[in-house]
From TrEMBL, chains A, B:
Organism of provenance: Limimaricola cinnabarinus
CDD domains named in the record: STAS_SulP_like_sulfate_transporter (cd07042)
Name of the protein described by the UniProt record: Sodium-independent anion transporter
InterPro entries noted in UniProt: SLC26A/SulP_dom, SLC26A/SulP_fam, STAS_dom, STAS_dom_sf
Positions of transmembrane segments: 21-41, 101-122, 134-158, 178-197, 217-237, 270-294, 344-363, 370-388, 400-428
């Protein structure tokens, strides 16, 4: 049943599951579980939700993705950028800490899941192409800065607020006198320790005799050490009573069955944020999935990925979670730790379920500052301004899109930023294709080749204009061709023949067809004939479905050489007329 | 001073103005003036404004366009579609017949003029390319139907309302018992007469001995006869007292100096409608201008046209008018009547100013039903469903855009309709370019030519995949190439070399570059080398500004033939590695 296993990839890998795959998957699951516990709590904090929501958001979604997703090693759950976008979107409709906030986060996950499913079932994954690479890179860099800035308040022990750099900064400045020194001490040491873990722990473990892979994995579990140490410190010295914000009571429970709110008002308020979260999440996830799959020559099906992520988000909505997607670092750890199949995800879900049942009392004394430190260290690796340099060197158009995205995200928040990025790149794209490269060509003497008159020494005839169009013709540029030809006709009174050379025209749409018809008519009114040459097969097929070829005042030549020979002198012209 | 005359085309033609041009211009001006008086009154009625606004909107704008515009024969003033859009936009913010309504129309003209000027000065005319030909055709057809429907109430002598087909229809049905039979008699006979004028007057004039041009022009002045006859009938039988709606008191005055409202609330409410009106008006106008200019091999500069239309609309805002643009029928009449230069427009403005001063008392008794008849007969010629058939035959994508535009314009009004058309055509465009044509190619035996393996009998090698990309690579399709190559790598375990053939790749943006880099890395991880062949010069220049060529695991071949020879057998491969 190829069609069923297309929609249920589990039928494919599940049938061939064996002991060796089980061993790899189980080991990976243990390591990923240890890594995910602090990460899940931290991203829940970032999203403005109670800490257990982070663990819940990691359980059902992993299972659902394991059934429907096509990547063998992608690890799904809360990630930094999507959590930030969740906080921004839900913060618009409810106050953090209220039941309405939690319910709105469920609705956001539901909407986002429904959109991803719909995009997948309708095979509309191409919509993600709206987001160009530079826009995503700029958006993620700016988001990393926003996230790190938003976590500073937890490190300082004050109330944070705001979704733009200015709001966050103003909030910090306004409360500077309420800084809690003990929290600062904990937060700064945790941050310093975690930075050292990133750079220094792995070499240390290597020197202690661990193999490179194990040292790498050991270094990834570093955050757990910071959590243990700071939790113990708070418990031992009763720092909670001295103003250190702690996680507090966390229910000891499996993910609860929850129902998102379907109020039409809430759905319409969250529609656009959910769409942006879906697309950003999908783009992030598929790029990780493809990178990992390539290493083992496995196949990722983008439309099926939409279905897998859609199912994962739907399940988050019904199990006390919030929007999720495939995470980069956790997927890499999963892959490096030897995960072979999505069963590794299922085992991770089991591990997290056990943690939710038995470990939650232990995190009562966990200081929020430690979670903030975990987030800051994780997201600063997302910040990478080199995209600005790359874009500047490669093309000014891309530079415009990436700098608009970074600036607007920092100044006006994630939704404005990513929307501006999308709009800018579409505008830039339309602008570029609206002025396609065209070259007046002439014959290279003694050959059958035709080249740009501006770049080569070529022969031309005053009464013939041969114009090579180096772009497909469609509505963004149809009018430009009209304008250019009107200009040529007005400038050259001796002109009797125009040849449009189409070797690089891959497509013609109805707008361009109508432009060609208008050009034909206008040139005819001006006493000039219009010819075509080197038209590609599919384009010719399309033109035959119109009246253009019947009405064309000139001819269609197989080659530009043939056109030049036939139109060689006015005398010949009479013959062909 | 070429730079100054670029922005002031009047300096160019004004310097060479002579008696022959004067004669042509003056004759044309008389004819156009006679035609414009009823048209201006009618379009003011359609826009929901007092009749004199139509005449005012024809005076200053014509003068300003004469100074700044590049077309020699374009006649600027109120036109049907823009008047309908004005009624829809202003109707949202004020009630018809109030001072606020008139003021909002001025603001709309001001905003629209400012936008056109800005687009022209910033050389952003390409934004009009958002509107594809089929979308415009569909929009104009649907607008024609809406306009005709909206005028039915005047023919029936009842109060009309609504901006969608359903609202208009419901309004008519609700007031059926208030129909005024005398108005119906007048309206129906005027409509019938005007339809006859369109088809029958010209042959009659020809039979009466007029030349074809004069007969044509005579037929165009037909509406004046209808106006004279029905006005006389109302006056003679005092039909105004018997319930026939008449134009009534019209001030005898030159265009007044008016100031549009600049309330921020009004400006923000009218922003989107003004943008749509600007773009629709510009697209309509430039297409008429180019068609007429081509007949005399004159040049139209699109960016300067934006400035000309912008100045015209600004002047309408300060002289009691409403949004204007270049009209099709009046421009054709102007051209056919022998206009040589924009001075014809200036003389027309003079004629209309005289009419505003001296003729307005005569139109006191003009029935509104006659104006409605003028509008109905004029706009029904805009209705042309053949675009649906053309689009269906030519491409389903264009058909989707045109049918969405027609349906949504009729059901939800002009703004929703045109926006939906723009969005649909951009989506369709992105969808099409997101899945570019690519062909796996092989060598035609015994030649150096490479063709699609699906269409030709060609030779391939199992360890080499040669893929010809028939489209520029940019963000809408960058990911598709990644997906396709991931799929090939997963399907063909024997693959060692991939050659991307780029003869039709006209452009590569940063997204596509990063996709190529990702493809290179992923193929490398899978033990496959990536090569390029037949890269165009400008694309190669661009790639040299990146690290791709340094990191490429394979080579860049000048021709596919060279690539095939070098990669011919695995043994050769080792040699080049």
């Amino acid at each position: 049943m190829p069609s069923l296993s297309r929609y249920l990839p589990i039928l494919d890998w599940g049938r061939r599951y064996d002991r060796s795959a089980f061993t790899g998957d189980a080991v990976a699951a243990v390591i990923v579980t240890i890594m995910l516990i602090p990460q899940s709590l931290a991203y829940a904090l970032l999203a403005g939700l109670p800490p257990e929501a982070g663990i819940y958001a990691s359980i059902a979604p992993i299972l659902l993705y394991a059934i429907f997703g096509t990547s063998r090693t992608l690890a799904v759950g809360p990630v930094a950028v999507v959590s930030l976008m969740t906080a921004a979107a839900v913060g618009e409709v409810a106050a953090s800490g209220t039941a309405g906030y939690v319910a709105a986060a469920l609705t956001l996950a539901f909407l986002s899941g429904a959109m991803l499913l719909a995009l997948g079932l309708l095979r509309l994954g191409f919509l993600a192409n709206f987001l160009s690479h530079p826009v995503i890179a700029g958006f993620i860099t700016a988001s990393g800065i926003l996230i790190a800035a938003s976590q500073l308040s937890h490190i300082l022990g004050i109330e944070g607020e705001g979704h733009t750099l200015i709001e966050i900064g103003a909030g910090l400045v306004a409360q500077l006198d309420e800084i809690n020194p003990i929290t600062v001490a904990l937060g700064v040491s945790a941050t310093a320790f975690l930075f050292w873990v990133r750079g220094g722990l792995k070499p240390l473990l290597r020197r202690m005799g661990l193999g490179p892979r194990m040292a790498d994995i050991g270094a990834k579990t570093g955050p757990v050490l910071a959590i243990l140490a700071t939790t113990l410190a708070v418990w031992a010295f009763d720092l909670g009573a001295r103003g250190v914000a702690i996680v507090g009571e966390v229910p000891q429970s499996l993910p609860p069955l929850t129902l998102p709110s379907f109020s039409p008002e809430l759905l319409s308020q969250l529609f656009v944020p959910a769409l942006l979260i879906s697309i950003i999440g999908f783009v992030e996830s598929i790029s990780v999935a493809q990178t990992l799959a390539a290493k083992k020559r496995q196949r990722i099906d983008p439309d099926q990925e939409l279905i897998g992520l859609g199912a994962a988000n739907m399940s988050a909505a019904f199990s006390g979670g919030f929007p999720v997607t495939g995470g980069f670092s956790r997927s890499v750890v999963n892959y490096d730790a030897g995960a072979e199949t999505p069963a590794a995800g299922a085992f991770t879900a089991l591990g997290l379920a056990l943690a939710a049942l038995f470990l939650t009392p232990l995190i009562h004394y966990l200081p929020k500052a430690t979670l903030a430190a975990t987030i800051i260290v994780a997201v600063l690796s997302l910040v990478d301004f080199s995209i600005l340099k790359r874009a500047w060197r490669f093309s000014r158009a891309d530079f415009a899109a990436v700098s608009a995205t970074i600036l607007l995200t920092l100044l006006f928040g994630v939704e404005t930023g990513v929307t501006a990025g999308v709009v800018t790149s579409i505008l830039v794209h339309l602008y570029k294709t609206s002025r396609p490269h065209m070259a007046v060509v002439g014959r290279v003497p003694g050959t059958e080749h035709f080249r740009n008159v501006l770049r080569h020494e070529v022969e031309t005839q005053p009464h013939v204009l041969s114009l090579r169009v180096d772009e497909s013709l469609y509505f963004p540029n149809a009018r430009y061709l009209e304008d250019r030809l009107s200009a040529y006709a007005a400038e050259k009174p001796e002109l009797t023949d125009v040849v449009l050379m189409f070797p690089a025209v891959n497509e013609i749409d109805l707008s361009a067809l109508e432009s060609l018809e208008a050009i034909n008519t206008r040139l005819k009114d001006a006493g000039i004939r219009l010819h075509l040459s080197e038209v590609k097969g599919p384009v010719m097929d399309r033109l035959k479905r119109s009246h253009l070829l019947e009405e064309l005042t000139g001819e269609v030549f197989l080659s530009q050489h043939e056109a030049a020979c036939r139109l060689g002198s006015p005398a010949n012209l009479e013959g062909t007329a």
